[in-house]
Amino acid sequence: MTATLPSELWLCIFSYLDLEDLRNARQVCKTWSELINCDLLWKPRLLARGVSLDCMKLDDGEHEHEEGVSNRWVQLGLTYYGNLASNWGNLNFEFSTFPRSTAGVAMQMPFVVWTFKPSDANFVEVLRVVNGEMAKEARLPLPIRGAFYTDDSCSPCMTFNNVFAVTMNVTIIIFKLKDGKFSFAKAIEFTGSGSCFSTKDTEVTPRYIFEWNESRTLPMCSSFCVTDDVIWFQAIRIEEGEPYRRTMYVWNYNTSTLLLNVEVRNFIGSSKDYAFLMTKDEGFSIYSLNGNKIWSEASEVTSVCWNNFGCAFIEIGGYPSVKAKFLELPKATSTKNIDVPHAVAITLHKTGHFAFCLRLEDNTARMNCISLRNGGILWDIVAFPIPTPSPVFSTLFCYKLDVVLGKYITLLGMDDSLMVGEWNKLHVYTTSRGKKLGTINIKPLYELQHLSDEFMLAGTSEHNGDWEFRYELYNFLFGKDTPDEPIEAMEP
Question: PROSITE patterns under this entry (predicted)?
Fold first, then answer.
């Protein structure tokens, strides 16, 4: 293959690729490899992940330098990817635990946002990932609660790495990255009536959170997605003798404009372009981050996932009928059936046209790799035996599949009796043939909050008289070369 376009145009095209895509594109042909061996392509992507040329641990000779590659950022990128692939392949990681005073953790490389229970600290800690290690970046003050507020809610939300929100009861504090540092940007109050929100324009964080009339019912509020302009925010109203009412608001906090107000059953998640949720009236729905509806289907779904080409999910029809489906985005015209009977979980390759499904068959759970182009099954393996056959419907919410580095599939069995002795473990397989590499033990899992090429963040819970919630961090940038130690607690 020869380059028929100017080199500058090829570099512009390649600039849209991530690290994994750049690495794969180098293998297409010699011409592409020569074009991609350019520090201008690799440097910004590595810096965005907190990796620099002084990263000695990632470039310590463990992985040989590729012959013919002299550019330092290119070589560091290849070493970085190779180090991650080796650690995932060998299930090698550093483990640490956040202290008990932690209220919440949110991650978007290269930043980690860490909040504390207000009784322990009244600030948010921003950490920066620097060559795989957590470094203190900033300590930003939060408003003080009034005497009426008795709960310890202080939840961070981070969808992009340049903005995050902290929700405290009915108050949302937004911080933005400016000139390389995070600072206060906006304070928002959920009023529950009228315009729904009150935006406070100040240059510094308000000293106190907005007051709430004690005679009014205090809603339960949480933020799910925040961008440079809008915030996705849910309020749960609890009225005596009435069922919970969950309302999702999409609020442009720069223009003080309500973009969406819809009753929901739950917020599934968000990508960099879309939000996925179950609405009360329209079922599974997909919206742009600005609150415009893209698509909806009046059905129950589970195992929703997405990649650069679209989203996949399992549609739950009349019991025991289930169908795995794929919807191309942003086209969003009609869904395509994925021919896998009795599917209980699905995930998509992030950059390729492949789906990975877990399905039940007699006394086994099998995993398949399916081509989304022609529907062909590329491989089929036995994932684990099932001692007692169980209806598909009872296991639809018990498994979670994901893909890391484009090379490995992770399978998490959550409190499910079908995986006797195996639940609350992360099972790792290769994407190429489905070979099982091993398992990672997790304490009783409350939520798998973050999973990326570099990190896994798990919220765990244990009952020792009272429920105790902890956050555990698994760092795959470095192999385990020191004893397990908790992350250093930040003193108020």
Answer: FBOX
What are the boundaries of each domain within the chain?
A: 7-89, 142-298, 299-441
pLDDT at residue 65 above 60?
no
| Residue 256: band (very low, low, confident or very high) from pLDDT cuts 50, 70, 90 | confident
Reported as a single tens digit per residue, the pLDDT across 95-140 is 999 998 898 999 999 999 999 887 767 899 999 988 888 889 999 9
The answer to whether residue 69 scores a pLDDT higher than 50 is: yes
CATH of 299-441, one of 3.40.190.150, 3.20.20.30, 3.30.70.3400, 2.120.10.30: 2.120.10.30
Four-way CATH pick for 142-298: 3.40.50.970, 2.40.10.480, 2.60.40.2250, 2.40.50.140: 2.40.10.480
Q: What is the pLDDT of residue 483?
A: 37
- Indicate if the pLDDT at residue 356 is higher than 50: yes
CA–CA dist 38, 45 (Å, integer): 12
The whole-number average pLDDT for the span 238-265 is: 85
* DSSP result, 365-420: EEEEEEETTT--EEEEEEEEE-SS---GGGGTTSEEEEEETTTEEEEEE-S-TTST
CA quadruple 117, 122, 452, 97: dihedral positive or negative? negative
- Structure tokens belonging to residue 215: 């005679």
Under 8 Å CB-to-CB from 364, ≥6 apart: which residues? 382, 383, 384, 385, 386
d(CA 449, CA 163): 18
